[in-house]
Amino acid sequence: MREKERAVILGGGLAGSEAAWQVAQRGFEVVLYEMRPARSTPAHKTDRLAELVCSNSLKSNAPESASGLLKEELRRAGSLLIRLADQNAVPGGTALAVDRDRFAQAVTEALEGNPRIEIRREEFRGLTERSLDPAGRGSATLIATGPLTSDTLARELESLTGSEHLSFYDAISPIVDAETLSMERLFRASRYGKGGEDYLNAPMNEAEYRAFYEALIGAEELAAHEFEERKYFEACLPIEELARRGFDTLRFGPMKPVGLRDPRTGHRPYAVVQLRPENLRFSSYNLVGFQNHLKFPEQKRILGLIPGLENAEFLRYGQIHRNTYINAPRLLAPDLSLRAAPDVFVAGQLSGVEGYVECIATGLVAGRACAARGEAFEPPPRTTALGSLIHYITHADPANYQPANIAFDLLPPVEGLPRAVAHDRRARREAQCRRALGDLGLWLKGIQDRESLVRGPLSVVGDTE
């Protein structure tokens, strides 16, 4: 990318925002296209960059968890978005939950304040014509347009790759006004006492659960559009789909009561609904894992059967929306560039990952690879969470590909562990984490040395600290 020293990034979501920051920090001029507010989507509510449209949780922050490991790797790798998430966190037990408005505003201000980043509020067109830079040809392009990629760009991407894009449904959980909850029917606790009392819990006895279950399986759903064939992601199923799989499915899923004890009875509830705070004021809560595809009046009626939510006012109802992603193992090289067009990179949910932190991770890696175009780019080591995630989306079976969250089973096992450690699940994971962070440090040092040789010391501008 030396000729133009310029990159065009499409999409101002989590991946695109992180990628724009990473490219700019390496001395390149960035043109970031975000079509909102000129053209919105069914899921977005604002024109801010990195708007969180589903949950406000970036999942576990526990160092021994896969999600916690990935976040720690991103912190050490200089992720802007993880740093801003930490700065705008709200109580969420062991999870990293954020005040979504403050977080999106902080990201927007950071990118708007970076003199190397130009933000264009318009839809990008002309990908297949390869006029990737309005100022001239030759610049790299990074596509991170997310789950609601416009039909125009999706068709152009399909033409460029020669492969049909796929679609499934992503989910948004309902949010309720805290002042309208019947607090006397709820209790505060986190599972197994971890993380204090950050969650509100709505306990159910068997009769209450049965009434809720029967209402749910008989609920009226929104009709799907003709172009929307339902392909649900198994890790993010709507509650009505789970309910149809059996009476106890919800009790072993989002309504599992394990690790909780109702202080009024001294016993574990038959089932429980957890509510997580949306902001530091505790003025609203989202229903954890309660994404659904029901009509809004049906949601109000059925969710009102949950103890404590009888008179709840819903600030946002649950929704299901289309998600678009490419067949990454067939189309992407290990540096997240298209095999058919090496100067075009793909990141975020469009690249075939699921989850906020995973999108940020692909944005960071694709952004660094984009900035290294013309130089050899070494992906993160396979032994790291970053490297294992990238390895999965670029090496999985393309015939049966499905988006993935980070998980320990994506990381290779640590060889040669003592017998006692090898037979202890927690100890095995701790060993994987130690190895991952050690190998990540070596990778980062190698990249820093190479960047210094090519460009001199990293020139940091527009920092938020």
Task: List the keywords.
465 residues, alpha+beta, FAD/NAD(P)-binding domain, six-stranded antiparallel beta sheet, 16% strand
Task: Describe the structure in your own words.
With 465 residues, the chain is of the alpha+beta class. It has two domains: 6-165 and 326-455, FAD/NAD(P)-binding domain, CATH 3.50.50.60; 171-322, Elongation Factor Tu (Ef-tu), domain 3 (Beta Barrel). The protein is 31% helix and 16% strand. Strand 4 and strand 5 form a beta hairpin. Helix 1 (14-25) runs parallel beside helix 10 (356-371). The radius of gyration is 23 Å and the shape is globular.
Blueprint of the fold:
Blueprint lengths: L5 E5 L3 H12 L3 E5 L23 E4 L5 H11 L3 H8 L1 E2 L4 E4 L1 H13 L4 E4 L19 E4 L7 H11 L4 E7 L2 E3 L9 E2 L11 E5 L1 H12 L21 H5 L27 E7 L6 E4 L8 H8 L10 E3 L2 E7 L2 H4 L5 E2 L2 E6 L9 H16 L13 H11 L23 H4 L2 H31 L10
Parallel strand pairs: 1-2, 1-7, 2-6, 7-17
Antiparallel strand pairs: 3-5, 4-5, 8-15, 9-13, 9-14, 10-11, 11-12, 12-13, 16-17
